[in-house]
Amino acid sequence: MRVALLAYPGVAALDVTGPAEVFAAAARLTGGGYELVLLGTKPGPIPTVSSMALHPAGVISEDLGRMDTLLIAGSPGIPPVIKDAEVLEWTRREAPRCRRHGAICTGAFVLGAAGLLDGKRATTHWRFTRALAHTHPRVTVEHDSLFVRDGSTYTSAGVSSGIDLALALVEEDFGRKLALSVARELVVFLKRPGGQSQFSHQLAAQFSDLPAIQGLQHWVIDHPREDHSVERLARRVHMSPRNFARVFRRETGETPAGFVEAVRVEAARRLLESTELPIQTVADRVGFSNTNGLRRAFLRQHGTGPAEYRHSVKGAPSSASQKSRGRKPGT
């Protein structure tokens, strides 16, 4: 299967290299299941925002033959090529000829400018979802998804989510087992579901402008197992509990207890994805007193329980998680 990645001057290198490494690893593991082609908009090296140059195998003005999959990379801002008539005409003509087409990050604006997102659901980097919705009102923008599939059109959120999208495409083509093998080969988290939130609480911690609160958020993230009662957290920032709770909510938009729960659930999610630890051990390591508490919090944050979540990202449940669920029906 021929996978084409379209890049242009000012492209984000990881938007190209991340998905490219996924398909390259899959090609190695399948003995040639994919042929990867990097395309440019003009002849010559393609400068990226990180000062690297990419060397395309072809340009859009050439006869490129049949492509199975076309993905358009993004840039740190709205891609300047949305004003390039040649690029838009080529995209408008060639994308529908592919079995599937899509965009990484702000590459969605190129698909949008070519009219290929009209009447569809789509996403992009969280900083630009409102701009995408405003610029293309016929598009249903999903503001908080890692990637979105609507028919044969795929869009993904910022930067590293292009890897998640590429893994999902590999799974579509060759099954879950190969997708997980590719993830292990690249030493990345085993495949995240497309509907998972773009935001981690590590990122959310940056949204407080008050240094004391931001520092406290980072401390909570680094120590999820600690006692994070309002009284203890207030003492760390030298405030009264009442004033602390008021300031924290003003700065972050959520209560201290809500933030702590979200951080613990996220820490649990990472352990569920990357280890075979029993659910009880996971709960203990991230600060929940029992598996029922973890399950209730996980349901609030993700709409599914921890055992079900592990199964969704890792395939058949491990013997450890099966034993855990056997001991505790609530887990």
UniProtKB/TrEMBL annotation:
SUPFAM superfamilies: Class I glutamine amidotransferase-like (SSF52317), Homeodomain-like (SSF46689). Gene3D superfamilies: 3.40.50.880, Homeodomain-like. Keywords: Transcription, Transcription regulation. Coiled coil: none annotated. SMART domains: HTH_ARAC. Pfam families: DJ-1_PfpI, HTH_18. Residues 304-331 are annotated as: Disordered. Residues 214-312 form the HTH araC/xylS-type domain. This is GlxA family transcriptional regulator.
